[in-house]
């Protein structure tokens, strides 16, 4: 079906939000050009833990949106049943053995939402999900969420771009960074660093951690809580771990080809220094400590080796909630800025494309609109 409100759109950013939105728009018969400052997934999507979940506690609208995102991945997994880049093997989490342990409260909350959750002792874990060193689990126990999974975002983005191209979409990656063109109070397209100008009826800004500063250039405000993130990818390893682990000292996520992705807030805080030129210095001893923490929670405590390290901003709005939809002060200008990009990717693309194409507001995005920051 073709919508008549607009006929063309520019998307700045070829991460999961930008590409997902682009695919949804070309499915509606809209001409779409995606502009990116390098190859697809070269930003936050390329260094995401990509744990598909709605675990723990958050606002009810945010939970519903995440659950809708997981639903879309379930549909995708049926289309690609043998994909090595999308798995639903569950997630296991536990907290430290101190006064901050919230496992009991988190379990009660998840059960109250009918979120599939099992409270397990260390002795129970081996019979539910393999590959753990149960000695790492604290006395308060762990929560296993059977419906959780993971996705390799660069691969998914590549799959989506194949459809995008087949449906006539255009991807531009050779003209540097782009900025939104606003003339007469309206977004009319984008201009790249090399001077290329692209006109369209609507512009979607999906540049991850760069979104708040880019909207500020047009006098708009989105509160920014973006921290620096560090993701370590290991070399391939034969190991039985299949679930995503979120533990007090490390998160471990299986990845394609027998590799694992690792991250932890403390590792980013202690191991990454931002240089004056905006680049990053990485402390090798902290990376090695992160590898050691991962080995401690894995069965047989394997020797893990670094294959690659990703560093950069992790997109998080100032209030922690997604920012999705139109900048109402500038007609034709839309944004997508949020944590949980992997979980939300397909559903954000679907709902944002609906709004761009029809001009209507989707009720599931009611609490996530950018203008909420103007009243603060």
Automatic annotation (TrEMBL):
Pfam families: DAO. InterPro entries: FAD-dep_OxRdtase, FAD/NAD-bd_sf. Residues 9-354 form the FAD dependent oxidoreductase domain. The chain crosses the membrane at residues 6-26. The keyword Cell membrane does not apply. The keyword Transmembrane applies. GO terms for cellular component: cytoplasm. This is FAD dependent oxidoreductase protein. It comes from Rhizobium etli 8C-3.
């Amino acid at each position: 079906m073709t919508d008549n409100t607009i006929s063309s759109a520019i998307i700045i950013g070829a991460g999961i939000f930008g590409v997902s939105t682009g695919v949804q728009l070309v499915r509606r018969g809209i001409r779409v050009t995606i502009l990116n400052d390098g190859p697809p997934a070269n930003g936050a999507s390329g260094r995401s833990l990509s744990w598909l979940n709605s675990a723990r506690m958050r606002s009810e609208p945010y939970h519903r949106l995440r659950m809708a995102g997981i639903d879309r991945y379930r549909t995708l997994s049926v289309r690609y049943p043998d994909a090595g880049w999308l798995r639903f093997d569950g997630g296991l989490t536990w907290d430290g053995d101190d006064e901050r342990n919230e496992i009991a409260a988190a379990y009660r909350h998840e059960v109250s939402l009918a979120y599939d959750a099992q409270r397990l002792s260390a002795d129970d874990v081996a019979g539910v999900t393999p590959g753990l060193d149960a000695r790492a689990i604290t006395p308060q126990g762990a929560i296993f969420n059977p419906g959780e999974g993971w996705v390799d975002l660069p691969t998914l983005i590549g799959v989506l771009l194949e459809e995008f191209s087949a449906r006539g979409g255009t991807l531009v990656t050779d003209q540097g960074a782009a900025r939104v063109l606003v003339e007469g109070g309206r977004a009319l397209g984008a201009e790249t660093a090399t001077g290329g100008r692209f006109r369209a009826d609507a512009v979607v800004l999906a540049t991850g951690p760069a979104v708040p500063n880019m909207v500020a250039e047009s006098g708009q405000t989105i509160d920014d809580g973006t921290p620096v993130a560090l993701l370590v990818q290991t070399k391939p390893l034969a190991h039985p771990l299949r679930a995503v682990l979120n533990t007090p000292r490390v998160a471990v996520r299986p990845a394609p080809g027998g590799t694992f992705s690792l991250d932890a807030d403390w590792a980013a805080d202690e191991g990454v220094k931002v240089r004056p030129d905006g680049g990053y210095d990485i402390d090798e001893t902290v990376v090695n400590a992160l590898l050691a923490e991962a080995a401690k929670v894995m069965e047989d405590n394997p020797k893990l080796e670094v294959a690659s390290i990703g560093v950069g901003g992790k997109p998080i709005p100032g209030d922690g909630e997604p920012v999705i939809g139109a900048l109402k002060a500038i007609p034709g200008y839309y944004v997508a800025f949020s944590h949980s990009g992997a979980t939300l990717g397909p559903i954000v693309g679907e709902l944002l494309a609906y709004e761009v194409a029809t001009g209507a507001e989707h009720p599931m995005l009611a609490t996530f609109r950018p203008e909420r920051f103007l009243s603060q």
